[in-house]
Amino acid sequence: MTIKHLAASVAASAIIASPAFAEVDFSGETIEWVIPFSETGGSAKWANFFAPLLSEELPGNPTVVVKFMPGAGSTKGANWFQEQEHEDGTLLFGTSGSTQFPYLLDDPRVRYEYSDWNPVMASGTGGVAYLNPEDGEKFDGSANNLKDIDFIYGSQGATRLDLVPLLAWQMLGMNVEPVFGIKGRGDGRLMFERGEATIDYQTSSGYLGASADLVEQGKAVPMMTWGALNEDGEIVRDPTFPDIPTFKEVCEATEGCETSGKAWDAWKAFFIAGFPVQKIAFLPQGTPQEVIDTYTAAFDAVRNRDDFPQIAAKRVGKYDVFVGEGAKKATQAGTTVSPEAKAFVTNWLQEAYGVSLN
Amino acid sequence: MDVFATALPALSDAWALILQPVVLGYLVLGVVMGLAVGVFPGLGGIAGLSLLLPFMFGMDPIMGLALMVGMVAVVPTSDTFASVLMGIPGSSASQATVLDGFPMAKRGQAARALAAAFTSSLFGGLVGAAFLTMFIVIARPLVLAFGLPEMLMISVLGLSMVAVLAGRVALKGVAAAGLGMLVGTIGEADAGGSLRMATYDIPYLMDGLKLVIVGLGIFAVPEIVSLLRQDRSIAKDAKLGAGWGAGVRDWFANKWLSVRCSLIGVVVGVIPGLGGSVVDWIAYGHSVQTTKDKSNFGKGEVRGVIGPESSNNAKEGGGLVPTLLFGIPGSGSMAIFIGAIALLGSGDIEVGPNMLRDNLDITYSIVWLLALANVVGTLLCIAASGGIAKLTTIRFTYLAPFLFMLISFAAFQSGQNFEDILALFVIGLIGIFLRRFDWSRPAFLIGFVLSNPVEKFSNQAFQIASFRFRKSFEEGMDYIFSPIVIVLLIITIVSVVLGIRQAKSIMAEGDVKSGSKRSPLVFLLVIMAYVVAALINANMIPDYNMTDKIVPLVVGGITLAALLILLAQMLMRPETDAVFADKEVAGEDADAPYGLWGTLTWFAGLIAATYVLGFILALMGFLIAFLRVRAQAPWPKTLILTAAGIALMCVMAGALNRDFPPGLLQDVVDLPWPLK
Predict the structure, then answer these.
(1) Which of B191, B206, B272 sits opposite A180 (nearest CB)?
(2) Domain boundaries, chain A
(3) CATH code for the structural domain at A127-273
(4) pTM of the model
(5) Angle at Cα A274 formed by Cα A236 and Cα B200, nearest 5°?
(6) How far is residue B516's CA from residue B582's CA, in Å, rounded to a whole number?
(7) pLDDT tens per residue, range B451-505
(8) Same fold flag, A3-124+275-339 and A127-273
(9) Interface pTM (ipTM) of the complex?
């Protein structure tokens, strides 16, 4: 039994327990799904994928439009959403790991509070790290032979999602020098293809779209995935890449890398916020339960469409879509880290990259 | 040969796909929608594509592509209307067009300029498509050959165009470009996240200023204000000279220039990460350098229109290469395009390395849909240009309020903050004074545009180079001095040397007279104060974030040095010297019946009223007041024009699902949509 089944059953029971949702009707209305990013990012892709599907499943088939409110690394939009209150249920807000990380790291721009909001759907992704062929030959399931090599990595910034791979490589004792300031993982991959970067990672869809092709041609060697979470909160192999070992396995095989203790706990906390619970759709504060249930049911219907696995595979990956209680739990897991983990990461960012968020 | 064995059948498949009546119908529909969106400055392809997105889900792939490509293709064509007729750069692709296109309109040659521009666009688009057809199957290695040092060199080549556009006093051009670069560094640094001339308390500044706003502020606001002060029509004496036929003949007479600039456009467009920001300036610089008689540039030289316009459409074709082959969008609209392709049909067309292998016919369809859309779009534009050019004969006082309305709306769309409009006003002020004192505005804009690429690529290339040098000296040298870098370096040096020699004859602001010492000196000191502040601010960034401070320090240092020399010159030279150029001393501005500040107050009034009442209510009051008081229009005319302006805004915003800037009133009272 995976977390998917668990989440599904919890969600299903939540739906059955509240029969009031049939009263909500959105006929002739327009639902605005606000994304705190520009039109060009992964979150836009995610919202644009779900919008037409959601429109079909909501009572009254309202038009669902995606609106963009980029700025200040998504904190502008999130701060705006914090000020919104329920009016008529036609406002939906979507966040991503880039909204969660500043929140977790106490970025001074953050004036939003996740626990005030009502999550209705959450979805995740995975990530794969890979090496250039030359150094890939030295990879034997552990990083023991990679410790004396200097790697270079195109990075968007140490406080973004790149925190997860950078910390993982550091825990393995590898010497990875990030080149900061690239604009997206695609640019990082291009840098790798040009031979300027010698190590790279992509989220699942990016890996399937382009990097897997490099692997096939022998121009890249997969190293590890970040893994996926099972229902007990343990890291297991990523269902999309069952043949690639997880970071946890590589860490266990590598001397000096431990899968317990402060560093591990911190890595895992930020991994959960960045990957398995990367994107969450919220209704604003004060939304009545029947509206929440309506959305929950609609998203549940979306993910249960017969063709959903097929159309979702490429757009959002073969990962779980959580709704209702499942989304709530996922949000909880993705937006809380222990004070120890936070302190560890803050300290590490300052020491390794001189990054301070205050 | 293997390549061609697969390419040729795919090409004929592509044509079979395209040449279906219903596909062509969708293409024309897309083109018409694109033209409608594109004529409004600052909206561009992103707004248009976002509008189409909801319909793409499950749509037949080739029809969806026809619709989207039609729309994307014509935006760089139709934005020429705004740049030539009003001096408003519609998008980054048409900034260089303003330099000579608008002066032509002022001389009553709007139709000629438009026709030359559109013919060049069309030709550039076709060259781009033809080039891509041959090239796309083998493009991958070329794209990969452009690493960080190569991209840095292209940015530097773009920056070297400042030499051509520096104006009569070269140091002023250098200082203007330096100031532009410093303004471009405002906000959170890409590399280390340090703040430059910004604080966490003003979140607006953290993202830096948007190109749309700086382009509008530097070019559009000063021209609008100046024309409004003179109270005349754009075309002097309200007469229209040569028609569109002359423009087509102009293009034919300069066809080789057009060919060269098209190729520049394709090649620069192919390189991911640079996009369109440099290509029109490189093309403009090339046009200047290859023209024998340079005295007309900046005053309405048709070659200054043909060059950039040939390159900017060809660039769209080139931009398809990184988009389709690597899945890396070269521009914002391309990013949405990629997202939308995945929605089409059963979602099995996937942009990226597999595109050529699995969907070569679709790839070719996209290339030739783009070319066809260019043809359709250009013909429509040329057909319309004669009529639309008549706008330049209207008394400007009747146009100005609507232009203020349009640029405010466009600025707001770039970030949906009230501060966007405020920034437009502030940058507009800078633009007004740069123009008045004959500091090169193109140099400022080039500096601004290239600030981020230069900083990013030099930091990253430096880091990777030092990594290579640590391995071995040869490896480091091989990396930095690749053959492409050496070639680009030579081109850059040649163009700087030529540029400096030629700059004196190119007077973008016309022949500005010199007069008193005081005003030019005050302006210089104000700029100097900002540069010093920026330097101090950059110096305060801790040393471990060297990547975030090095570029502002170096650029600021050079700018300050140039300013100090200028200051010394001002102190020593007589007040008739070119350093003291001032448009308020003699010429059109000095003779204008209305003052600068009185005219600016109208614009400031619109902004202040927006802050209180929200955009639509403020606009209503502004239009009525302006038309009644300034234009002295009778009541019926005032009301009709006001209603038309408001209706236009509402239809535009409604169709594109955009909001208007809210004011304090909207915080207190809940109002229905257009007033919201």
Answers:
(1) B191
(2) 3-124+275-339, 127-273
(3) 3.40.190.10
(4) 0.87
(5) 165
(6) 8
(7) 988 998 999 999 899 889 988 899 899 999 999 999 999 989 988 888 777 766 6
(8) yes
(9) 0.84
